[in-house]
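Budget justification note: compute hours in this period were largely spent on complex prediction jobs such as the one shown. Inputs:
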Amino acid sequence: MHHPPRLDAFDRKILAILQQDNTTPQRTIGEAVNLSAPAVQRRIKRMTEDGVIRANVAIVDPAAVGQSITLFVEVEVISETAEHIEAAKRAFAATPEIQQCYYVTGEADFILVVTVPVMADYEALTRRLFFGNNNVKRFRTFVAMDRVKVGLGVVVDG
Amino acid sequence: MHHPPRLDAFDRKILAILQQDNTTPQRTIGEAVNLSAPAVQRRIKRMTEDGVIRANVAIVDPAAVGQSITLFVEVEVISETAEHIEAAKRAFAATPEIQQCYYVTGEADFILVVTVPVMADYEALTRRLFFGNNNVKRFRTFVAMDRVKVGLGVVVDG
DNA sequence: CTTCGTTTGCAAGTTTGTTTCGTCTGGAGC
DNA sequence: GCTCCAGACGAAACAAACTTGCAAACGAAG
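Corresponding output:
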């Protein structure tokens, strides 16, 4: 994370491609954006160092590994002191079943995305995380029936 | 998606690595799991064909490309007929600002994860998607103050 | 006009991914 | 028990991709 990220049109086009498939050869990317492969490589390297590209990962189908249930949880806490919030963040971040955790404004304080193999696992999780934590005022659960659209891609044309 | 996905301990270890960094050389993976590089390559290929690995993508920092606001939206619809639900799914899936969309049970029907550069863009989005759609009964918005944990990784130890 | 800094393309060098091939193991059928 | 066959493995050869060095083009500042 050295430089303030300033991205030109080339960078944005490259990002758009890598967000869809980061196994695309640099030579192919170069043809798509009208740049040589080394130029593409240097830009990718720079964006990686600058933190624009946070990670390169394989997306695994949850159902294929037995994590067939996706849940949303709105969590409301009692005390919002810095220490309590930080403790909650750490606990959520450290829980592998929690795929995503956001600290939000509104009627809830945290929103979680959870994946588990069977409901019993979620029940166990609620006991451990919520009922076992006396700073949790209440939580509401939504069960996903259909994962209509799932991704972390962001709009890059800017 | 040919075979029914049957994953052994090797496959799961490989998946765990690729979920964190899919640029890891196959030789390195092989050393980590006690397998030769070609064996790793064959397993990755098989899992990709079987749909266990859905995609290989770069994760881009939303803030770096100007999408600094993340929002959650609970949407409640009026009519839940199949046609209305399918129409809604299609509309949400086709909206680039909507990163994730789930059809859920509970007090809401859809949960959306949205990223936009500034609040005005979200306001425009609500006008277009919600106020401009007379099947939307109501919606609730949560603004993310902190992206505590973001990812699509799933527990793979099975 | 010159200089410095940046970025590019090309070409060589290095690393990584892929294919080939021979071997081994486990199971079905004789 | 024996043979045969299918599947999976590792070693090595091979192909493709990535990475680096270097000279040239371009722009901004002096």
